[in-house]
Structures are given as C-alpha cells and as structure tokens.
Design a protein that fits this description.
- By secondary structure, the chain is α/β, with parallel strands linked by helices.
- The chain contains 16 helices and nine strands.
- It has two domains: 209 residues, 3-Layer(aba) Sandwich (Rossmann fold), CATH 3.40.50; 140 residues, Helicase, Ruva Protein, domain 3 (Orthogonal Bundle).
- Strands 2-3-6-1-7 form a five-stranded parallel sheet.
- Helix 9 crosses helix 11, helix 13 crosses helix 14 and helix 14 crosses helix 15.
- The protein starts with a helix and ends with a helix.
C-alpha cells in the first residue's frame, strides 16, 4: 500500500513540475513530448547554429553537462532544449535553484525526507531527485551549493541512489544531470570553494552560451518574438518596431541579455497605443547608450540627453504632457519645469504632429 502511495505522490509532483515548466518556457517548444523537429531557437547567429548542433549531438547521451554564460542568456532554456531533444522528452524536467539550498533544507529538497525526520516534517516527501526519476534534473547556479554539502551531492551522482532524510533505505534513481553557472568552476576549484571531484564528475561536456552583445544578429528576431508573444497574450494585432527603434536595440550592449530584452519589449508594447513602436517607448538606458548618433569625439551633456528624451517622448504623445510624464515616470509639474529649463518648443512639437 505504501509503495502505491509513493508512486501516486511521485506522479503528482512530476505533474506539478511539468506544469510549472510549460509556463516559463522562452524558446518555442510545443509540449513536453516535442520531437527535435518541433524545437526551435530564436536567432540566426553563428553562435545559435553552433549551440543547435551541439544540443543535437549531446541530447541522446546521458553524460552530465555544464552550461555556462552570463546572467540572462538563457542557460535554463538551453537545458530544456537538451531535455526535449532527448529520449527523455516525455518525462519530467525538474529545475533546482541551488541558491536556496542550505543545510537541512538541501537534503530535504533534493533527497526527500520521512515523516518526523525533523521538526515540521508532518509528511514524507520524494525530493527533487526521486521526482525526476526517468527524466532530467537541472541544477541552476550549481556553484552556489555550499562546499560542505557538495560531498552529499557527489555521492548521489556516483552511486545513483538517494536516501531520504530520516531514513536508512536507499532508492535507485535514473536521472540525467544538467547544470548551469555564470561563474568559472575551474577557478573555484583552484580557490578551494568548489570540490575538484564534483567538478570533474559534472564537467564531461561544457556548453557556453555567449552574451547577446556577441550575437547581435539575434537581437531583432528575439525582440520581434517577444512582441508577438505580447500580442498573443493580449489578443491584439502585432506591433512592429520603427527603424530608429531597431537601431537603438542593435546599438545597446544588453548587459541583462535576453531577460533584459524581453522586459524592454514588454514595456515598449504596453506603452505603445498604435501599431508602430517609436523610440520613446524604448527604455531610457537603451536610448542614452546609442552613442552612434553623436560624433565619436563629442559626448552629449546630461541636459542634451534629457532634452532629446523628453522631445522624443512629447513627439510620441503628440504634445500631450500628461501622457509623456507617465511614460517618463515623472510628475507633470516636473516635466513642465524641464520643458522650460531645456527650452523645448512644445508649440513646434504640436505643430509637427498636426502636419
């Protein structure tokens, strides 16, 4: 009877993980039963082509993989594509945020626990490993697991079994292990903050995802993809970027990578009442980074930047100050003061809008 309860519980946990996963997928993948032909990355750069070829080559293998790259490049999305291109595509994909795993919580969440194993353990749990049995487990920011707990993870990976907290019984598991980190694990091994034996156990394949600034060919396809998603979400006709807005996106370094671009496109979509997205709807930091509009030897002053931003916003709102103030995130009185201080001709802006 207990075995049936455990099996039912496992199925429920797996379903919940899978349902959560579908809601956070960025790159298109039709379902957790997708085949390779249904899986698409958004982008056309040589880097994306190389990643696709690598994913295709390693997806069918069972070796551990470390995915590296800056924050926001989409490391978890790459891990998902590896899973969905493998023979485990119809099984669960379990993401684990390693930044939350400390002490007793580490063992409980990863390996499960029995009822009464510690204060507050009113029910037995499977843990991430047993919930992922037959599928894939993804350790996001593997570098953040405390050194003293890394040995316990290594033992599970070596033996292929887990022992729940408070139990003496071990359970065999069949799990594909994928990891991601923005840090240099090899340097951490040298510094003594990451176990060498765990590193060599995990680092069979190292897949690096380059930042968005190194694959500018992907910026506009991704931006259009995010805008299309917003149109679908709101049930509205699609919106497009005007040529100047496109130039702004291409000239920006995107330190937050794909995550930052997605947020920028959501903001632009929401602030644009018409079909065409104007530069004024693009985030401030993206606009001021567009140094190509100025001579290389002549950087703009702060007042020049403010004047340009406010003028573009007023042109976008056809001279309506209240709407412009909302877009800029300031009070209308503050906008009036800036218009006077910076000698912005509101009458000329309105005249241009009427013509």
């Amino acid at each position: 009877m207990r075995q049936n309860d455990n099996r039912d519980s496992k199925q429920r946990i797996a379903f919940d993980f899978d349902k959560a996963l579908k809601n956070k997928r960025l790159w298109s993948c039709t379902s957790n039963k997708s085949r390779w032909a249904d899986i698409q990355f958004i982008g056309q750069s040589p880097a994306i082509t190389s990643i696709l070829e690598t994913v295709k080559a390693i997806a069918g293998r069972r070796c551990p993989i470390i995915i590296t790259g800056e924050t926001g490049v989409g490391k978890e999305m790459v891990a998902q594509q590896i899973h969905y291109a493998s023979d485990r595509a119809d099984r669960v994909f379990v993401p684990v945020d390693c930044t939350t795993l400390t002490g007793q919580l580490f063992e409980s969440q990863l390996f499960g626990h029995t009822r009464g194993a510690f204060t507050g353990a009113v029910d037995s749990t499977l843990g991430f490993f047993r919930a992922a049995d037959g599928g894939t487990i993804f350790f996001d920011e593997i570098s953040e697991i405390p050194l003293e707990l890394q040995a316990k993870l290594l033992r599970v990976l070596q033996e292929g079994t887990v022992t729940p907290l408070g139990s003496t019984k071990s359970y065999p598991i069949d799990v594909r292990v994928l990891c991601a980190t923005y840090r240099d694990l090899h340097e951490m091994v040298k510094e003594g903050t990451f176990r060498a034996d765990l590193y060599y156990r995990l680092n069979v394949i190292n897949l690096k995802v380059p930042p968005l600034c190194q694959r500018k060919e992907d910026i506009l396809p991704l931006a259009e993809y995010f805008l299309a998603n917003q149109a679908t979400f709101y049930g509205e006709p699609p919106k497009v970027l005007n040529p100047t807005a496109k130039k702004l996106l291409l000239n920006y370094a995107w330190p937050g990578n794909i995550r930052e671009l997605a947020n920028a496109m959501e903001r632009a979509y929401i602030l644009t009442p018409s079909r065409q997205i104007q530069p004024a709807a693009i985030p401030f930091e993206v606009i001021i980074a567009d140094s190509q509009l100025y001579p290389k030897h002549e950087l703009p002053t702060l007042d020049e930047v403010k004047r340009r931003i406010i003028t573009q916003t007023l042109e976008f709102t056809e001279g309506r100050k209240l709407a412009a103030a909302r877009i800029l995130g300031i009070e209308r009185r503050q906008l009036n003061r800036l218009i006077g201080k910076l000698n912005i001709s509101l009458s000329q802006i309105k005249k241009n809008a009427d013509s």
